[in-house]
Amino acid sequence: AEKVSKQEHLYKVLVIGEFGVGKTSIIRRYTEGSFSPNYKLTIGVDFALKTLEWDETTKVNLQLWDIAGHERFGHMTRVYYKYAPATFDTVAKWLSDINSKVMLADQSPVPVMLLANKCDLEESYVDSLRLEKYCQEHGLIGWFPTSAKNDSNIDNAMKCLVKTFIISD
Ligand code: GDP
Ligand code: MG
């Protein structure tokens, strides 16, 4: 039998955002398929791996970098995490942070996708039109309402991200 050699890609994904929004939980859900309601600080930087058999000829290795945001200031109580903090206003800050530190080899900005996590919470509210417009205006790939708890949209968001990587490779 003939052996088809697969094309293999390695991509790095940086998961950034405010403290407590669910970065570690999203990575854990995506790579291990599990969720824990207990908050644990992420110390420094941690990374997890995920391999996708993208299609017959393509294998994708993802390195998901879990960045500890401002977690050294982690003195808030767990109760805080039951509520979806209004963190949209901090997106601009994270975006300029990433763009000031990282760029692609051709000096263009890195592809960015926005996740509105904890969409399972009753009090979570996202203004879809506003997010859509924001993504267009700032050149983001797009956005997804996600829940690490209920496993909603995380695979979809990652698929969309990987598709962008593959197309621009
Ligand atoms: P990080 O600081 O951004 O890494 O946030 P964590 O992943 O540590 O999550 C902070 C807290 O929010 C933890 O108690 C998680 O269990 C909780 N959490 C994370 N994602 C979700 C989610 O989608 N839904 C709900 N209800 N809670 C979540
Ligand atoms: Mg974390």
Report on the architecture of this protein:
- Mean pLDDT is 86; it is low at 72-82.
- It is globular, with a radius of gyration of 17 Å.
- The strands form two sheets. Strands 1-3-2 form a three-stranded mixed sheet, with helices on one face. A two-stranded parallel ribbon has the order 4-5.
- Helix content is 27%, strand content 22%.
- It has four helices and five strands; from the N terminus they run E-H-E-E-H-E-H-E-H.
- The chain is of the alpha/beta class and 169 residues long.
- Keywords: GTP-binding, Lipoprotein, Membrane, Nucleotide-binding, Prenylation.
- It is found in: Membrane.
- One of its GO terms (cellular component) is trans-Golgi network.
- Belongs to the small GTPase superfamily. Rab family.
